[in-house]
Records
---
Amino acid sequence: MGIPKETVELLIKENLDHDCGGYEACVRLEAIADLPTRFGDFQAVAFWNNHDRKDHAAFVHGDIVGKEDVPVRVHSECLTGDAIGSLRCDCRDQLIEALEKIGQTDSGIVIYLRQEGRGIGFANKVRAYRLQDEGYDTVQANVMLGFKPDERDYAIAAHMLDQLHVRSIRLMTNNPQKVADLERHGVKVTGRIPLVIPPNAYNGAYLETKRKRMGHLLNVEQADDPVTDPA
């Protein structure tokens, strides 16, 4: 069972004249529809916002409205990995593992943000790939192109969770900065669920850069951690 029909109708109705209040990114829930997938029965929830003027998506399994400790994956778009199956990153593997895990639970959400290439866009991501081909790591490549190592922002994700009336989450991530940024935007994060993918022949250096230079927690043996656990 997903979000009940009557609740869906209420969510849509309350967004017809949505007032964002103090949010820096005004996010509006636009539509909800059933979405059967190979990972289980989900509902697709479409959002629009006035910050980047893009559509963003939440894929909801079960009834998450008003719930606490909801497993949530906040996934940034990766065209090369998610759609094409690139081996240069672990994005597709993390997305699939999150969908599989959530599909096996009572409820959960995968939020899909249009933040390609850690927020630098597809063309700049390919430029960064070219620099990596010349021997620079992902952090160096972004900086050489005039960007921060990670340009992503999670204000939109926070507002999406608010629109779905999710009270607290257990975040599926290896990135402590993502936890901190969501909390900065008002999300109550009660725990962290690791999504550690073993390296392949092409992405070992990429994963090592995330671990050493960006602080990602990438020990394969990790169990579920409370968000306060510094390990």
---
Amino acid sequence: MPAALVFAAAPLEPTARLAARLAGLDSPSVIAADDGATTALAFGLTPDLVIGDLDSVAASTLEQLRRRQVPVETLPRDKNATDGQLAIQRALESRPSELFLVGFLGGPRLDQALANVLLLTTIETPTVLLDARNECRLLRPRTPLTWTADPEEVISLIPLATTVDGVSTAGLRWPLRDEPLYFGDTRGVSNEPVEAQVTVQTRAGLLLVTRHFPL
């Protein structure tokens, strides 16, 4: 199955890097949560579905969606999950190979950003949460993550469990060799690539792997 791309409504800088990242996806299904539809359209993508209570969607966006015959599913404001979470659930119904979440970070709402990061713990499908200058994935035990590093990127490993055991890395300036990282501790923050390929793996626990691109 192709990847799925979900847009939420957090403010987003349309950097060339992010545009190229999204353009590199091979015919993903596109679902927008509420005013995430505006962001999707700004990147030249027509959503396959827009879902939400529509409390923040501009009239001009709704008109574009109408002209393009995009299905819009209007939800009540009173509900037990955010529009973003419900859009993710809808995207997962097609069993995509990967899930990319855009517009889930930033903006004035710290609570929304934190909740969206923690949503990764509920998703079994490989998922990338990204904005203009950051990407993050949730690394599960015994599933090594390897990528080609940008020379200037900053890499952080943030435990989302009391202890993440057996953390090992390759290609980083400050390596870890089968070591623990502890919830609330900053030991894994702000590392740097020293090789073209970087690998992170763990033996137990949930580990958030973040990549920051300063340029």
---
Amino acid sequence: MKNIQDQSDLNEKKVLLRLDLNVPLENSKITDTTRIDKILPTINLLLKNNAKIIILSHVGRPKGRVVNELSLKPICEDLKSKINTNIKLITKNLKEINSKDLFGHSDEKVVMLENLRFYAEEEKNNNEFAKHLASLADIYVNDAFSCSHRDHASISKIAKFLPSYSGLQLSLEVKALNKITLEIKRPITCIIGGSKISTKINIIKNLIPKFDNIIIVGGMANNILKYKGYPIGKSIIEENCDQIIEKIFYLSKKESCKIIYPEDITVGKDLNSSPKIKELNNVSEDELILDIGPKTIKTINNIIEGSSSVLWNGPAGYFENPDFAKGSFEIAKKIVEKNKAKTIYSVVGGGDTVALLYNIGVVNNFNFVSTAGGAFLEYLEGKELPGIKALN
């Protein structure tokens, strides 16, 4: 990929900048600005080089209809205050505008086009829609890694029509994931959670030949415990997963990758009850497994201590209740300790895991924190992302 930093002449060039500004909104108020904050370096680089910026983005799922509650207006206002530059939001039908309509005055530097998903052609990856968007500018820049698994007009098709570059944030995401999956510094450990093992099976299969340890926690681990013959009470579980688990253990043995799952657990009668630490064979029928136990924490921390690289996707328990967040907290604490000593390279991704790190105030103590969800996971599966392929 060519990075926008490789383009020496940006003076007065019109740049179509695809961003992921799909931030959470409540009553038109932004509740988390992380995705906005991460793309500021690319915008500031373009402004410094006197480029004219045309921002493309979406929010929500309006399904090709204009939905006023999903306007980019509040996002435009937030971004305006952060870059200390006026941004004109263009609400006119995108299919009826041309390049001359965008910058009315010579001092206008940034415009934002209204929600791309107001147009059905965006998600249909329509060739003419992409060609029209491309006609508005001289250069295309994708700084939306978290959208790059989508085969949409403004992500993949548009690169056919313009010189195309990656933005600074997208390049950082790809570099971090390559470092953890291709340029491996061993021993390397993956901590993977979530409720459904079937959604992560392809990731696990892809990582087993590359990783030394794969630690399975969260709801996914309940399937393994049941497969091993342990009682799991009324814990969350996914049906018909025995073949998946057999495949995981078969591949791990073949590739000499150790699979680690809980040795003890923390249970509760419900999500808000008092926590109890239990041995694996001692879970009652009316109990839920909601976190890992102290023996498991010690084992995981010992593995992290001996690792040079770690990838973490998915908390170890029901962290929304602090009583069941101890496993996740201790894992985070151990990685942070190694990170501060500069003895580990750490990559974290997935909304719940990132939320956990923000909650406990350690998000800046990891080498890389990805805001991407689906794109992060598909990259780990070894899939070719349309947005990345378009830039290569």
